[in-house]
Amino acid sequence: MQSRVQAQVPVLYVADADAARRFYENFGYTEVRTGGDDASRWSYLQCGELTLLLAAVTPRLVTVELPLLVYLYVDDLEATVARLTEGGCAVERVGHPEHAPGGECRVVDPDGNVVLFGQRRAVPGQARAARTGKEARFSLIREAAEAVHRRDGAPARCQIGGPRGEPCAEPAEVKLADSWGDTVWGCVAHADETLLNAHGAFLASEDGQGLGPYLRARQGQPARG
Questions:
Q1: Half-sphere exposure in the Cβ direction for 124 (13 Å, CA)
Q2: CA of 120: how far to CAs of 23, 101, 161, 180, 194, in Å?
Q3: CA-CA distance, 188 to 201, in Å (whole number)?
Q4: Which pTM value belongs to this model?
Q5: In the chain, helix, strand, coil percent, each to 5?
Q6: Long-range contact list for 117-121, CB < 8 A, 24+ apart?
Q7: Do the beta carbons of residue 22 and residue 14 sit within 8 Å?
Q8: Residue 162: how many CB atoms within 10 A of its CB?
Q9: Distance of CA 10 to CAs 2, 7, 54, 71, 84, Å?
Q10: How would you classify residue 181: left for phi > 0, otherwise alpha for psi between -120 and 50, otherwise beta?
Q11: Helices 188-197 & 134-151, crossing angle to 10 degrees?
């Protein structure tokens, strides 16, 4: 007889169990059990049939280089946004993707973990809130990719690759740069990820209106005085 999983309990290692609990209460979770001491605190949360275990252990048992990503489906996106905003959390509206036609948002919990939350129930177009944050940035990335495609100026493949250095077979559509002069070409998805995590990166234009032509034109102008 094959054994089957009967329950699933996601575990988040946090710095402050009380702060994390207050944050996740915005999504309807409530604490049903808690325990531990100063060196090892835990809080068991539940929302309907869903559970979440917050663990604050000193020293931390699990250390990750990048923040975790948690995805939650909510029944009322706007009410959740209102609760988070009233609590001082900065919420970005990501848009209305196919998997969340009622809207999708992004927020960061007290430990730096990214929490995406969406609504499965669709809303009419006129009821949709204005885009902010990531969606606004993503639209700029799409525009840059379309401009490069029209000029056919990109290399064949994405040069960014996956988080462990694995190559990406997607076409390179967007050029990124930073203030130190480094540049890289990437697909739309990896370019968006890089802009999100590499804070000094920005979209690099491939047209003829860059700094070089601008400075050369200035050198031919009489000095102001």
A1: 2
A2: 22, 6, 31, 43, 28
A3: 14
A4: 0.51
A5: 25, 25, 50
A6: 117/27, 117/71, 117/72, 117/73, 117/74, 117/77, 117/80, 118/71, 118/72, 118/73, 118/74, 118/77, 119/73, 119/74, 119/75, 119/76, 119/77, 120/73, 121/75
A7: no
A8: 11
A9: 23, 10, 9, 11, 22
A10: left
A11: 130
Looking at residue 141, its pLDDT comes to 56
Q: Copy the structure tokens of residue 80.
A: 């959740």
Both structure tokens of 153: 């100026």
Torsion region of 36: left, alpha or beta (phi above 0 gives left; psi -120 to 50 gives alpha): left
Residue with more model confidence, 164 or 159: 159
Residue 70 backbone dihedrals phi, psi, to 5 degrees: -115, 135
For residue 115, list its beta bridge partners.
Answer: 70, 107
Residue 102's alpha-carbon distances to 76, 91, 106, 131, 187, in angstroms, are 9, 16, 14, 13, 27
* pLDDT above 50 for 212: yes
Residue 174: strand pairing partners: 186
Both tokens of 178, joined, read: 């930073």
In angstroms, the CA 209 to CA 98 distance is 37
The DSSP-derived string for 31-46 is: EEEEEE-SSEEEEEEE
Q: What is the per-residue pLDDT across 30-67, written as a single tens digit (0 to 9) for each?
A: 999 998 877 788 999 999 989 999 988 877 665 555 55
Whole-Å CA distances, 34 to 8, 116, 135: 18, 26, 38
- 42-60 in b/e form (b: 16+ CB < 10 A) is bbbbeeeeebbebbbbeee
